């Protein structure tokens, strides 16, 4: 069997998206008959056209792959030849070919990953959610439609795929890989992606990262490891990211939140930022800490935090160019109302007073969302709010709790008060 080229994979079709080429085959770990039997029938959304990317490589890696095409096709390019190879040789051939296929996607080298990210890892990004059907299976078609809406109608610059908002902790590894494939294909040539490869198992992190790179992710993001007995945190965490940097070529964003059991110090983050392919950090800490880190790293990496309310001040005061990110760009904007996008653009142009006016005009929507959000069910509330906006939401998986009927009624009332329902 011929090993598919990158061009072959990019021509494949995302479920629910019309395309001139062949359909995307289900992931080999999926039960395709099961997926086919669970098609969502509640929507009649028209097919969407997936455009082709015209981007060019920024290094010689793709040329290197092309030089190996003859070798690859000779050894593994057809079923007949593959059958002639000894079983012991086949894994060796695959190990030689797979890194070359991964590099074919890369738009930067490991050594210039930070420079490339400073230029391109910018703007308003959003954390994706993962739609499930009533039977809790992953709704691939709805996921593709949501992404198309987010990067098209809502003008989101990039997507953070299957992080905590996306319930990665309740997804199987094949499902997470599939979400990467779909996101990369829908976003190709239109928006950028950072794939969440966080996991408590380092082998899973690396496996996900290599899959993300192979299928066209721009970057990956990896949460700081959960340390149940948090001793020698700084050395442990530094070695964790150093190992990832050494093992992988793709650009890596750090991610630190107190829910892992500790907060990484600004000095530790700055030390890790000296590694060549560490390109950014989502730093969910008080402002004084991320402001200190911004000063320490200078122009080396992008620093960001999840708070949309602090985003404009961070552009003005700290020179930030990246909002990385949470769900507000998906929940506080509509096809006719792009105020987060608008005030960001105004701020980047130095029109700060106008930007503040637009930012402040969103406060009724922020307050309505906040008042309706139960403390214990953030993902379920987010998904229900998405449905009120006309996006695909669906239920959450255990261990998360769904909304009660009373909570849904409150959310509907607050949604009307938000001013988003008619926009």
What features would you describe in this structure?
The chain is of the alpha/beta class and 423 residues long. The protein has helices at 6-11, 32-36, 61-67, 69-76, 79-84, 90-105, 113-120, 140-152, 173-187, 202-214, 233-247, 266-272, 287-297, 311-318, 328-331, 339-348, 352-361, 363-372, 378-388, 405-418; strands at 17-18, 48-49, 123-127, 158-161, 192-196, 219-223, 251-256, 278-283, 302-304, 322-323. The strands form two sheets. Strands 9-8-7-6-5-4-3-10 form an eight-stranded parallel β-sheet. α11 (233-247) links the parallel β6 (219-223) and β7 (251-256). α3 runs antiparallel to α6.
Provide a short characterization of the protein structure:
By secondary structure, the protein is an alpha/beta fold. It is built from 20 helices and ten strands.
List its salient traits.
8-stranded parallel β-sheet, alpha/beta, single chain, 423 residues, globular
Q: How many strand units? A: 10
State the helicity in percent bands.
40-55%
Assembly context of the chains: single chain
User: What topology, given as strand order, has the largest sheet?
Assistant: 9-8-7-6-5-4-3-10
Q: Please trace the helix and strand order, writing H or E for each element.
A: HEHEHHHHHEHEHEHEHEHEHEHEHHHHHH
* Number of discrete helical segments: 20
List the helices and strands and how they pair.
Elements: H1 6-11, E1 17-18, H2 32-36, E2 48-49, H3 61-67, H4 69-76, H5 79-84, H6 90-105, H7 113-120, E3 123-127, H8 140-152, E4 158-161, H9 173-187, E5 192-196, H10 202-214, E6 219-223, H11 233-247, E7 251-256, H12 266-272, E8 278-283, H13 287-297, E9 302-304, H14 311-318, E10 322-323, H15 328-331, H16 339-348, H17 352-361, H18 363-372, H19 378-388, H20 405-418
Parallel strand pairs: 1-2, 3-4, 3-10, 4-5, 5-6, 6-7, 7-8, 8-9
Helix pairs in contact: 3-6, 6-10, 8-9, 9-10, 11-12, 12-13, 14-16, 16-17, 18-20, 19-20
